[in-house]
Amino acid sequence: MILTSNTILITGGSSGIGLELTGRLLDLRNKVIICGRSSEKLENAKQIFPGIHTIQCDLSLPDERIDLASRITRDFPDFNILVNNAAVVHRDSFLNGHQIPEKSRLEVETNLMAPIVLTKLLLQLLMQNNRSAIINFTTGLIYAPRAIYPFYNATKAALHSFTRVIREQLRDTDIDVIEVQFPAVNTPWHDGVPPKIAISTEKAVNEMLKGLEKGKPEIHVGGVKKLRTLSRIAPELAFRKINSLD
Fold first, then answer.
1. Is 152 part of the annotated catalytic residue set?
2. What is the pTM (predicted TM-score) of this model?
3. Which one of the listed residues 137, 143, 151, 152 is annotated catalytic?
4. What tens digit of pLDDT does each residue of 18-34 get?
5. Which fold would CATH assign to domain 7-242?
């Protein structure tokens, strides 16, 4: 995959892995558009990287997903790479937590439906342009879910399955379909208490970019490959290990 001179949309690009990736792709002479729910975070990202384009958008809302795709199609006709990064998570008890149906709906809409809908709405434009790619971010937790996340694991496992299917269905086109599976990464996503095994955003993005340069359709960052192997050999052991982490 050629990582220069592209026009790239990164959902959830105003913090964490998305923000780190934004800076790296700008350095590689790409045009980068980021979207996010928080206007304050988008403005902060713009101050750090003045060359980016920002769009405020709540991807959990169907109308805002449609509006985002329309703006990309209208304003960025050379758009050729979609990075589905945005995600939300709730650390909660399914048994005793409050507003569980609402929380599950928010995660499903943001983590799963948004990538599906954006992919469909932007697919025609991607097919028209050269060197196009769809890059979906998932997690090693698709192999061994953490019990503290009642919905997140399931949404990412579904996105993993969807990614494999559309890769197969688009195999006769020029669109690359790539999945990047991340381990725990030290980002604001953990609310200041990341697991001890969490890697830095710099390391996570470095490994991702190396995988993209090599043309890998599925990129395992950090310890994900080991977890994947362990889950196949001893799935219960993998489950216990991932749920014993501090």
1. yes
2. 0.95
3. 152
4. 999 999 999 999 999 99
5. Rossmann fold (3.40.50)
